[in-house]
Structure formats: structure tokens, C-alpha cells
PhzF family phenazine biosynthesis protein
Amino acid sequence: MDTLSYVTLDVFTSTRFEGNPLAVISDARGLSDAAMQRIATEFNYSEVTFVLPPEDPENSARVRIFTPTMEIPFAGHPNVGTAYVLGQQAEIFGKPVGEKLRFEEEAGIVEVSLKRSGGKVAATAIRAPQPLAIGDAIAEETIARCIGLEPGAVVKTSHVPVFASVGLNFAIAELSGLEALAAARPNLAGFQAAAGRQTTSGHDFSLFLYVRTPEDPWEVRARMFAPLDNVPEDPATGSASAALGAYLVSLAPDSDMDVRITIEQGVEMGRRSIIALDVAKSGGIVTDVVISGSCVSVMRGEIILQA
């Protein structure tokens, strides 16, 4: 294999050059782990996906997700985008493409639904592979140091800053308003210190900040910083959005709920993204989180593996 085909697309948007860029290698057979990591580092997107035949023939594919520095067990926009790419194919490793896909990932099985318009994939929806897990609380001083703000900008009315996950762990914190959110700037030394103090995240200290709309608490504006993973800021983070949405619904007083949450991210970067979440709660426990969004194709090309 001398060359390797790839496609790129923008995820959580229907406008090209907005949303979150993703590169998809739809047939990664024959690539070593090291080669996958080098390719992901070369793209320098927040994630690149590599698609392989499934280990269980009942599933559609095995999907591996790499950031510029490491492989991760789950992420939102890579799954939404990879499903969009594969959903446009007639077959995936010899099996016809249906309206639902199942991806094998380190975090578990990710179930995907394809939403078509005029026979073409218009959007995809994925189900979070793990139940909501809440980790340690984080001091507001730690959050403030990471983003160059005063501790008073961190709001603790609904919850203290905390680790949360539905497949990938994030530090989550609410800020006092859009002005504070816009003023946030990642401070590498703060992130390094925060990562050195925590032992439970299982991932470099990645920080998801948000502000809730006073008129509608289920309309959220967010930003995500992960400078320790060579991602100074991410335009759209489905896995963090899903963790946040599940956590906020878990904190709501109603024991049974079905909530649609809209998270707007990437505005400050000029890459506006819209992430839709459908969160179900029964008997006081969050039972389901579905992440959905649109995609638009951007580039096609070949990676030269050998001269």
C-alpha cells in the first residue's frame, strides 16, 4: 500500500469551513498503531478516525480515534462525521449500509442512526456508549488559573466544577456569563498543574466551559480547551457536550424527563457549531444520551505512505 485515501468534512454544521474539521480514513487496514498516530499528528485536527473491519460481524466497523498526541476511547464529532462518510457508501467492508450502524470502540459499542434527505445522508445521531459517570470536584481556583480569569467568574450555583463522562472524561465548569466565556484564554502552566493534581480523569486535563441562557436553561454556549493534547481550542466537542447534558439533566429536580439541549460552540473561533442532545431520565437516573448534528464534505485526497 503506497497511498491511502482520506476525506475531510466539517461536523456539527451545514456551512463549509465552520464546525469542527475531521479527517476520515475509511479503510485503514494494514496501518500500524504508530502510522495512525503519525497521520493524526500530520493532520493536526482535534481528531482523525481510522475505520477497520469489525471484530464481531454483527457490527458495522471498528473505529479508532486519534488526537494529535494519543488514541482516545470515544469522541462525539468523530463518530458523527465517520457515520456521515460511511453512510454515503453502498457497502462497508462488503456489508450493505442500512439506516443504523454499530461502531466498535474502546469505550464500547456506539450506535448510530443515519438521517437522510433526498436519499443522501443529511445528519447523523449517535448514542453515548457509557452511562453518566461523575468524578472528583475541582477547585474553582484551578479552573480560573487554567483560563486566566478570577475565581469569581466560575459559577457554583448549580454545581461545583467536576469531572464528567459518558465515554470520555472532561472537566466541566459553568461561567458567569458570555463576557467571561469570551475572555477565557488557555494558560498552559495552569493546565499542566491541574493535570498533575488529578488522577481520575484517564485523559489529559481537558476543560469544557459553558454558559446557560437565562431565558432557556437548555440553550447552552460553550468552549473547550485541551492544550495538553495540542488542541488549544476545539470548535465542537460532542463527547463533552453529552457529558454536560447528561449531568445537567441528572441535577434537575424532575425524576422523569426527555430534554432536547442545544449547545453552540466555536463562535469565538469563527467556526460556529451546533450540537443537539436528546437526554432521557427515568426514576432519577439518566438512561440515554443521543448526540446529533449535520456535516458537510470539504476535501478528498491521498496520503503518500511510500515514495
